[in-house]
Design goal:
This protein has 16 helices and 26 strands. By secondary structure, it is an alpha/beta fold. Among the domains are: about 150 residues, Rossmann fold; about 100 residues, 2-Layer Sandwich (GMP Synthetase, Chain A, domain 3). The strands form seven sheets. It has a nine-stranded mixed beta sheet, sandwiched between helices. Strands 4-3-5-6 form a four-stranded parallel beta sheet, with helices on both faces.
């Protein structure tokens, strides 16, 4: 029986009839059987050989599995003392840090639902997430309180800071007096562990719901059959813990292997990233192709001799970047394709992957290429990527469920082909998602931001191919009368978007038009904008 007494999320899940077919491992527990993700990954580690080895590290701090266990328990007690109940949503806002990792684990161990948010989000974006998830509390890094405070003004959300051990009303002080033993909430497999928000093509927030069983099953898939990490591994990377790519790679998956994670602090430009990798003795790196390409000339001068695995995901990996990295480091990059709705990587390259291929489907998943009618296409044909496995799309109260899931399959929105040996080849995005330097950006949300500027009458936003970032955001604007299309206006519009949305979403190119291309019914023809760029 579910332990989550707050049924808000359960009552807003899609009906089972529109779920994807879930292919859980044969040895996995049933959905109604007891399963707490953090108990499985952390509590059980106390009985494994690596219990006293490092788990989390950042400059000036190292915590073993045993120490992390005690601190997570204290934070779980602290959350309960606030009156939080199993099933309540807790919003988390912070950069990649030990403090964020401890808070996330405590939320899930106590049976609440983690709602992690990207650190660059502005108050408006946080407000949209709060409206959708209806969290009872927020835990926010003290360095990111400004936008959180602005968002809080529009709600009754209670906010507790973390990251300052001396803050009198902070999470650390409240936790310090708590017991280091905590009985994990008796959640069952189908209880929800997290809501992962993604900006899709409509620009409105979508929340992918992942259960304890979903995430536990993901931990038994690619980490064991693709990554194959070891207890001696030290993981360093850039994807935010609020992004499922980062949550898996930089928090959960290292725990599967008994490995450790190093969280560098401060801005991670290519030079700082390479230095952090050297300082940590990094053996596994996670980042997007854009940063790998930027790091290549730096690591050529300052080799990271400990590095053995380089994982790339978040955007398409150009062959030129793969070759450059291999030439400089001698390491064949491991490319992965995943989705927030699928939690993590479901197709991955390996040593036998041909040049230009994404790789093969990960053990535990099935994938094929389908047409718009749900028919499997012959090898070599380009069509829609269809996937099913132990994870799958379950949107929170969203009609777009029937778009992502059809005939029991998940359709992540990629156009691909597959050869006779089962290797997949990426062609393009099948929707209007812009993937720039590993970030997913919905064109319509950038359009919404531009349209709030008094100079803009109409606009359309698309992704433009870019050698450095994969894609960039390109905006086409029709101006209101009295405004001059010049360089100053371009900067003003870019700054306006940066002040409204996360800065990485701003349009790096703006083109001014007299009118936008539209169909006779008035629908914007984005394909014509793309071909004109």
């Amino acid at each position: 029986m579910s332990a989550q007494v707050d049924r808000f999320v359960h009552e807003r899940l899609p009906t089972r009839s529109v779920w994807p077919e879930m292919l859980y491992p044969a040895h996995s527990p049933a959905g109604d059987a007891p399963l707490n993700l953090v108990h499985e990954l952390l509590d059980k580690a106390l009985h494994l050989p690596w219990c006293d080895r490092p788990l989390f590290r950042e400059p000036g701090l190292t915590l073993s599995y045993r120490q992390v266990h005690a601190m997570v328990n204290q934070r779980a007690h602290a959350l309960v003392s606030l009156g939080l109940l199993p099933g309540n949503r807790v919003l988390l806002r912070g950069t990649n840090s030990v403090g964020f990792a401890l808070a996330w684990l405590a939320v899930v161990k106590a049976g609440m639902i983690a709602v992690a948010t990207m650190p660059l989000l502005r108050a408006k974006e946080l407000g949209d997430i709060m409206l959708k998830a209806q969290p009872q509390w927020a835990l926010c890094d003290v360095r990111l309180m400004d936008e959180m405070s602005l968002a809080q003004q529009q709600s009754s959300l209670k906010v507790m800071p973390f990251g300052d051990p001396d803050a009198p009303h902070g999470l650390e002080v409240l936790s310090a007096a708590q017991d280091t033993q905590f009985t994990p909430c008796p959640t069952v497999g189908d209880d929800i562990a997290l809501l992962a928000f993604t900006s899709g093509t409509t620009g409105t927030p979508k929340a992918a719901c992942h259960s304890h069983l979903d995430v536990w099953s993901a931990c038994q898939a690619w980490p064991l059959h693709g990554l194959c990490a070891e207890p001696d591994d030290v993981v360093v990377g850039t994807p935010p813990l609020a992004f499922t790519f980062g949550l898996g790679g930089l928090l959960l998956f290292p725990m599967v292997a008994g490995a450790s994670v190093y969280y560098p602090q401060g801005p991670l430009n290519p030079e700082a990233m390479v230095l952090a990798m050297q300082d940590a003795g990094c053996t596994i790196c996670y980042t997007a192709p854009t940063l790998y390409r930027q790091m290549a000339p730096v690591i050529a001068k300052h080799p990271v001799t400990s590095l053995r695995i380089s994982v790339s995901a978040g955007e398409a990996l150009p062959q030129a970047t793969r070759r450059l990295w291999k030439d400089i480091t001698g390491i064949e990059m491991m490319d992965g394709i995943g989705a927030t709705e699928m939690f993590h990587i479901f197709i991955s390259s390996n040593a036998k992957t041909p040049a230009g291929s994404l790789g093969q489907v990960v053990t535990g998943y099935e994938a094929c290429v389908m047409n718009d009618h749900g028919d499997v296409l012959p090898h070599g044909s380009v069509g829609r990527l269809a996937v099913r496995g132990p994870t799958g799309c379950k949107y929170l109260d969203d009609h777009r469920q029937s778009t992502y899931v059809q005939h029991g399959w998940n359709f992540p929105g990629d156009a691909v082909s597959q050869d006779a040996q089962g290797f997949f080849y990426y062609q393009s995005r099948a929707d209007d998602m812009i993937i720039s330097a590993g970030y997913n950006i919905g064109g319509p949300e950038v359009e919404d931001a531009l349209l709030t500027h008094p100079a803009v009458a109409e606009c359309g936003v698309v992704g433009k191919p870019d050698a450095e970032r994969g894609m960039i955001v390109q905006a086409f604007c029709v101006l209101r009368e009295g405004h001059v299309p010049d360089v100053l206006l371009v900067k003003n519009l870019q700054d306006h978007v940066k002040s409204t949305l996360a800065p990485y979403k701003y349009p790096r190119e703006i083109v001014f038009l007299d009118q936008l291309p539209r169909t006779p019914t008035g629908k914007l023809q984005r394909f014509r904008l793309r071909t004109s760029s």
